[in-house]
């Protein structure tokens, strides 16, 4: 059990508890945090980082180039329910040129009265 | 209460190390991806805290405790974290207990020798001290 509990460099937790505490206390409704709760939050955050990274890598296209990319992460936020709370801070990216085309198309559709053409799929800027 | 933006961020070096541990050797992590994960981690802390706080309020308590955090994880659908979290907590509690006892012995010795000298040494562990002195009234003790 002890082996499983340890992560990097054999430490029980790597993220600084003091910093985790600052973030937790920035929540207005929180008055005090017991020591164990602070530790667990830090530990859970480490597990979360690992899960987000490994899940995104596994399900993304970045691995075709042996990389974890921003796009992999934003796909995860959009497609996986567990990570949906991150959707706002990990928005999909779109090429400026594509976006302008989309705007033009929407304008044209408005004038003609709408087609049944499918909307262009969003592309990501790398 | 205004925090400076960097205070709500987690240290880059640590985040990077944790990410690397989760991925196969040699995988590149773009700066953008690393930065995004760091932000996600901060958001996770906020979400978890808010969720845990709801459980504390349900129990009419003002102090977040271990049980609240564990309940929050379940609520957020991170059941996969439960076992490793509980195991880590056990180890952590043992370590804290050991530290407390070590301090007691140290203080006992100091009392019988020179009191002032040992007080000075104790001030080095500022962070640890700060954490130990937090109210532990809600602490659950599993025996």
Automatic annotation (TrEMBL), chain A:
InterPro entries: CBFA_NFYB_domain (IPR003958), Histone-fold (IPR009072), Transcr_DNA_Rep_Reg (IPR050568). Pfam families: CBFD_NFYB_HMF (PF00808). Residues 106-126 are annotated as: Disordered. Residues 14-75 form the Transcription factor CBF/NF-Y/archaeal histone domain. Residues 112-126 have a biased composition (Acidic residues). GO terms for cellular component: CHRAC. Keywords: Acetylation, Coiled coil, DNA-binding, Nucleotidyltransferase, Nucleus, Phosphoprotein, Transferase. It is found in: Nucleus. It comes from the Eukaryota. GO terms for biological process: chromatin remodeling; DNA-templated DNA replication. One of its GO terms (molecular function) is nucleotidyltransferase activity. Forms a complex with DNA polymerase epsilon subunit POLE3 and binds naked DNA, which is then incorporated into chromatin, aided by the nucleosome remodeling activity of ISWI/SNF2H and ACF1. Does not enhance nucleosome sliding activity of the ACF-5 ISWI chromatin remodeling complex. Heterodimer with POLE3; binds to DNA. Component of the CHRAC ISWI chromatin remodeling complex at least composed of SMARCA5/SNF2H, BAZ1A/ACF1, CHRAC1 and POLE3; the complex preferentially binds DNA through the CHRAC1-POLE3 heterodimer and possesses ATP-dependent nucleosome-remodeling activity. Within the complex, the heterodimer with POLE3 interacts with SMARCA5/SNF2H; the interaction is direct and enhances nucleosome sliding activity by the SMARCA5/SNF2H and BAZ1A/ACF1 interaction. Within the complex, the heterodimer with POLE3 interacts with BAZ1A/ACF1; the interactions are direct. This is Chromatin accessibility complex protein 1. The gene is Chrac1.
Automatic annotation (TrEMBL), chain B:
InterPro entries: CBFA_NFYB_domain, DNA_Pol-Epsilon_Subunit, Histone-fold. The keyword Ribonucleoprotein does not apply. Residues 93-120 have a biased composition (Basic and acidic residues). Residues 121-143 have a biased composition (Acidic residues). It comes from the Eukaryota. Keywords: Acetylation, Coiled coil, DNA-binding, Nucleus, Phosphoprotein. One of its GO terms (biological process) is heterochromatin formation. Residues 93-143 are annotated as: Disordered. One of its GO terms (molecular function) is protein heterodimerization activity. CDD domains: HFD_POLE3_DPB4. One of its GO terms (cellular component) is epsilon DNA polymerase complex. It is found in: Nucleus. Residues 9-73 form the Transcription factor CBF/NF-Y/archaeal histone domain. Gene3D superfamilies: Histone, subunit A. Signal peptide: none annotated. Component of the DNA polymerase epsilon complex consisting of four subunits: the catalytic subunit POLE and the accessory subunits POLE2, POLE3 and POLE4. Interaction with POLE4 is a prerequisite for further binding with POLE and POLE2. Heterodimer with CHRAC1; binds to DNA. Component of the CHRAC ISWI chromatin remodeling complex at least composed of SMARCA5/SNF2H, BAZ1A/ACF1, CHRAC1 and POLE3; the complex preferentially binds DNA through the CHRAC1-POLE3 heterodimer and possesses ATP-dependent nucleosome-remodeling activity. Accessory component of the DNA polymerase epsilon complex. Participates in DNA repair and in chromosomal DNA replication. Forms a complex with CHRAC1 and binds naked DNA, which is then incorporated into chromatin, aided by the nucleosome-remodeling activity of ISWI/SNF2H and ACF1. Does not enhance nucleosome sliding activity of the ACF-5 ISWI chromatin remodeling complex. This is DNA polymerase epsilon subunit 3. The gene is Pole3.
């Amino acid at each position: 059990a002890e082996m499983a509990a340890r992560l990097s460099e054999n430490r029980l937790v790597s993220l600084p508890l003091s910093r985790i505490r600052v973030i937790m206390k920035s929540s207005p409704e929180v008055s005090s945090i017991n020591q164990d709760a602070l530790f667990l939050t830090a530990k859970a955050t480490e597990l979360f980082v690992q899960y987000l990274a490994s899940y995104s890598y596994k399900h993304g296209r970045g691995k075709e180039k042996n990389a974890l990319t921003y796009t992999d992460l934003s796909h995860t936020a959009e497609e996986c329910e567990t990570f949906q709370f991150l959707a706002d801070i990990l928005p999909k990216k779109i090429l400026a040129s594509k976006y302008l085309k989309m705007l033009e198309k929407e304008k044209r559709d408005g004038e003609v009265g709408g087609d049944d053409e499918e909307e262009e799929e969003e592309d990501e800027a790398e | 209460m205004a925090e400076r933006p960097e205070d709500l961020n987690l240290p880059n070096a640590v985040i990077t190390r944790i990410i690397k541990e989760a991925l196969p050797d040699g995988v590149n992590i773009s700066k953008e991806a690393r930065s995004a994960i760091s932000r996600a981690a901060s958001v996770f802390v906020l979400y978890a805290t808010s969720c845990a706080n709801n459980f504390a309020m349900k129990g009419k308590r003002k102090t977040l405790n271990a049980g609240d955090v564990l309940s929050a994880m379940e609520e957020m659908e991170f059941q996969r974290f439960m076992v490793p979290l509980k195991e880590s907590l056990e180890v952590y509690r043992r370590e804290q207990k050991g530290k407390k006892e070590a301090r007691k012995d140290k203080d006992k010795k100091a009392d019988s020798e020179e009191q002032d000298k040992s007080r000075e040494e104790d001030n080095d562990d500022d962070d640890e001290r700060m954490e130990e002195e937090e109210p532990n009234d809600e602490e659950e003790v599993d025996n």
